């Protein structure tokens, strides 16, 4: 692995922190969400979108009106919502290769925490491989994982970069800034 990787760039990495023991006490989850989660747990996360059929697109538009606002400089219609809908409404393939949705379901425990958090294993990675963690400053993903990775790899290069004005889709929210940071990292490798 180490002879093939010059620098690892983790963009908005999911699955690093462990679910805190007090997660439910810090942010109580309403009983109706718990009930809905129990009912839907046997299904893949986007099954509801497929069940909605032709109403699925309006569901995406209603649940995520930010898509239209966020990308208004590029599109003056519902292109982004339609793209998200069509990408996610496809039924998972019934082949041996994991579909992303099925893989995500198999890797999570309730409320989106990782079954096997990466912070438990990151110290086993070759210490000579530099890591840069890139987050959107307004992201829902825990940005503290970068500093935790650094503490778990004290003799390795670990850098955390926060892209101002970006949320979870950092590469789409601030594409110029994101591309510049990635290019700088790539230039430093060669």
UniProtKB/TrEMBL annotation:
BP GO terms, sorted: lipid homeostasis; negative regulation of triglyceride storage; phosphatidic acid biosynthetic process; positive regulation of triglyceride catabolic process
Top-level division of the source organism's lineage: Eukaryota
GO cellular component: lipid droplet; mitochondrion
GO molecular function terms attached to this record: carboxylic ester hydrolase activity; lysophosphatidic acid acyltransferase activity
Main location: cytoplasm
Gene3D superfamilies: alpha/beta hydrolase (3.40.50.1820)
Keywords from the UniProt entry: Acyltransferase, Cytoplasm, Lipid metabolism, Transferase
Claim: DNA-binding is one of the keywords in the record: no
Subcellular location: Cytoplasm
InterPro entries reported in the protein's UniProt record: AB_hydrolase_fold
Record's protein name: ABHD5 acyltransferase
Species of origin: Tichodroma muraria
Gene label: Abhd5
